[in-house]
Here is the input.
Amino acid sequence: MADAVPPLKARHPLRGLLLFNFGLMLFACLDTTNKYLTSVFDVPLIAACRYIGNVLLMLAIVAPRNGQAMVRTRRTWLVWVRGLCLAVSSLFVLLSLQRMPVAETTAIIFLAPIIVVIAAGPLLGEKIGWLGWTGALLGFFGVLLVVRPGGGLDPVGVVLALCACMLVTGYNLLSRLLATSESTMALLFYSAVAGTILFSATLPWFWFEQTPTLLQAGLLAVIGLFGGLGHFLFTAAFRDAPASILSPLSYVQLLWVSLLGWLVFGHVPDAISLLGIAIIGASGVLVALKSRRPAEEVA
Here is the structure.
């Protein structure tokens, strides 16, 4: 059974906004940390550390409070497929970050929510409307500006980011489908377990070739915290504020990754790429605004 939504008078929109933005910052920190770690360690090892840390965090903090609800599911095989989509997308994101800056990689992957709007029509029976189509077309145009020939991006990195985008799209579609039958904590837990199983199996081939420094060990430990706490804050935020308010703010993450990419790696996207990133963000806001309008207004 899906988690109950608090009554309107019990909500705290300002707190929800703060939690949501802090979650976005944590995801930006996760991507930036992953970018650094990919220059030192094998990608499957980094992914394993993230998901193992995520599972341990949930077992320590969430399990005592949620008990069996955390493992109870109705459409179990779809829950596992959703978790595997997220895990494999993480692999492609890390491989892309090996080759491309954080901001451009994130911008390409942020095309996923826009594709979801288009795919939700035939797959989930949702109406798209003119706002949805406008946002989708703008988003594709923005991505073309980011990945344009002569833009200096690694073509393989672009393909890897697009693969991650497709998997994130599947993950988001399954999230919509399963939201009516599964609890949020169960979905979070099974996603963490799926990634842990998948990447732990690779550890015999991708174990540490050298002993990590204290800083590197700390960063490997903290990526699980970034991912797990980020998802937890998202869950808490949607309990305090409606999705119509929070969804347009998702694209603030593009600002965070651009800022962190500059501070940590000294990378600043060129003017055309910045324009593309801004257009992707604007298209996402349009898609979110479409989602908050009644179906009859966008038909």
Summary: Residues 253 and 263 are 15 Å apart (CA to CA).
